[in-house]
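Researcher: Re-running this chain for the archive, since the previous output was lost when a drive failed. Same request as before.
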Amino acid sequence: MSAFNQSEVPAADPAKLVAEADAAVATIRTAREAIGRVIFGQDTVVERALITLLAGGHGLLVGVPGLAKTKLVETLATVLGLDERRVQFTPDLMPSDILGSEVMDQDAEGRRAFRFVKGPVFAQLLMADEINRASPRTQSALLQAMQEYHVTIAGQRYDLPAPFHVLATQNPLEQEGTYPLPEAQLDRFLLQIDVLYPDIEAERRMLFETTGASEAAPQAVTTAAELLAMQQLVRRLPVGTSVVEAILKLVRSARPGESGDPKLADAIAWGPGPRASQALMLAVRARALIDGRYAPSLDDVAALAEPVLQHRMSLSYAARADGLSVRDVIARLKSRIG
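Model: Regenerated structure tokens:
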């Protein structure tokens, strides 16, 4: 293991940190087992969703219909003890349908006053289902909430619950009648989590488990308060100097003209900003904790490079015409980590 970056070492007692980490690892292991009794064959997706929540961020689940994206979010909410709301995004959805609105009340004496009725965004876990089907105006209503953790209605600030997470879903196939998410909103998502088809064994198990007389139901394992404590623990985990340098090198190399690779010199149109470095720093810590380790490694950086970077960069027209994809570029960049 590389030497620790002293600026990242917490001032707290190391023995206490280890004890807290051990307790968190046990809780996370139990949570994964509880999720696994309901969600089959999506181990990587479950891991990345947990990384997103442990890191205190928001996730974008991308996959075709029928892969249990909605069920995963509902299961996560139950297992982690979070208050969950679901919003089906449609072209006619208005910002007030998400944030809430003011209504006029009249008391017994005829006095009138406005009262704010909170929308579904006032939940600890908000599922934005098919987020790209709503208009840009409605999509932007989530921007302040996702970044600032409060909303402003009629000049009045309303704080969101803690913790607050958005897990949005998106169908990569049907693009007719959709509105691509703006780069500013994509950047608010800690990870893009690609949900792929399950393998044959997982699908076989799914057939029996979900079509019988009874179906497994998720059980609560932890609470919102304990999740907040684990999020703080993630931020206190030490990070080795080599890991910090690998994060910086990877993110900076994904920007135009900074790859250091002649074959990629003109391939990248725009790349990730400093928020990507922050996201990767938190994500590798969370992944280490999930695996029962007290500090992240270079393997964590390589494993999370794609979900952190793929929605934060775009290729030039010439590169796309040559058949190059964002995943190809990231694979080439992360191969130089170490």
